[in-house]
């Protein structure tokens, strides 16, 4: 079956790890809704708690239209979201990157390294300090802003479009940020978004909420199935999610074997 715009759907699902045509450019770029694409849509629907039909119903399209984190849900065919669990009906939980990468050291330094000043630099650093304090409060980590005498473990900054890593930004909307698994220590934010460092307006993204999510990735958490969890992949404009939820805390405790 051929449908207009299907090639854009294929690109979306490929970007987030659901679909691969293994270099077959013809099928990857045409508008044919084939069996492989239907299977990818079903996996996406399963991961996001949608009706698993393989068709593009309104709820599926609405979910795909949400601005989101650029970290793929599935990497190298592996996921610990709902579709990667043996019992798809089990309680949805946090997930980790493949291989459970994590930090062996507990004293981590961070630093803003990009030269783009998208928001006030003092306000950005204050947000980062608050976010790291929230993760420190539920873990064994200590965090400090690196000075000139220390190399940071976590490097943070705003970038635009193709900025030299494997994941391009896409301008306003779409991908808000991306962060690599431990121990890469790289956390990037899209400079073309309309960011808020205070209470966001209806057309602004709350920077503190997004940073809280991305630092979860920097510590080793992947995306969560749980509605309301900080580690959910999507967040809308005007929305604040500034407090870690039980699923986020349970996830980081499990990864680092921290007792409650």
Task: Write structural notes for this entry.
This protein has 260 residues and is an alpha/beta fold. It has two domains: 6-65, no CATH class; 107-256, Collagenase (Catalytic Domain) (3-Layer(aba) Sandwich). Helix content is 30%, strand content 12%. It contains seven helices and eight strands. The protein has helices at 6-15, 25-29, 35-47, 58-65, 121-137, 207-219, 246-256, and strands at 68-69, 107-112, 142-145, 154-159, 175-179, 186-190, 195-196, 205-206. Strands 1-5-6-4-2-3 form a six-stranded mixed beta sheet, with helices on one face. A two-stranded parallel sheet has the order 7-8. Helix 5 links the parallel strand 2 (107-112) and strand 3. The longest helix is centred in the middle third of the chain and has 17 residues, at 121-137. The model has no long low-confidence stretch (mean pLDDT 92). One of its GO terms (biological process) is extracellular matrix organization. Belongs to the peptidase M10A family. Matrix metalloproteinases (MMPs) subfamily. The active site is at 214. Ca(2+) 3 binds at residues 170-171, 190, 193.
């Amino acid at each position: 079956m051929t449908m207009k715009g299907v090639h854009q759907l294929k690109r979306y699902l490929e970007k987030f790890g659901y679909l691969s045509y293994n270099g077959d450019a013809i099928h990857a770029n045409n508008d044919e809704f084939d069996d492989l694409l239907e299977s990818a849509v079903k996996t996406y629907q399963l991961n996001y708690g949608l009706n698993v039909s393989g068709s593009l119903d309104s709820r599926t399209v609405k979910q795909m239209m949400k601005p989101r984190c650029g970290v793929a849900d599935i990497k190298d065919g592996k996921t610990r979201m709902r579709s990667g669990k043996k019992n798809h009906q089990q309680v949805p939980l946090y997930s980790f990157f493949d291989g459970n990468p994590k930090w062996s050291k507990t004293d981590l330094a961070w630093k803003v390294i990009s030269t783009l000043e998208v928001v006030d630099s003092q306000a950005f650093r204050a947000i980062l300090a608050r976010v790291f304090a929230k993760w420190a409060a539920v873990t064994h980590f200590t965090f400090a802003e690196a000075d000139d005498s220390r190399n940071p473990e976590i490097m943070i900054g705003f970038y635009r479009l193709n900025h030299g890593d494997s994941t391009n930004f896409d301008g306003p909307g779409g991908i808000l940020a991306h962060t690599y698994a431990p121990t890469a220590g790289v956390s990037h934010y899209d400079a073309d978004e309309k960011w808020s460092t205070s209470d966001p307006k209806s057309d602004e993204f709350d920077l503190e909420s997004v940073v809280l999510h991305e630092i979860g990735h920097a510590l080793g958490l992947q995306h969560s199935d749980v509605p309301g969890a900080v580690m959910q992949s999507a967040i809308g404009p005007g929305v604040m999610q500034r407090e870690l939820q039980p699923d986020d805390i349970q996830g980081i405790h499990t990864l680092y074997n921290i007792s409650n």
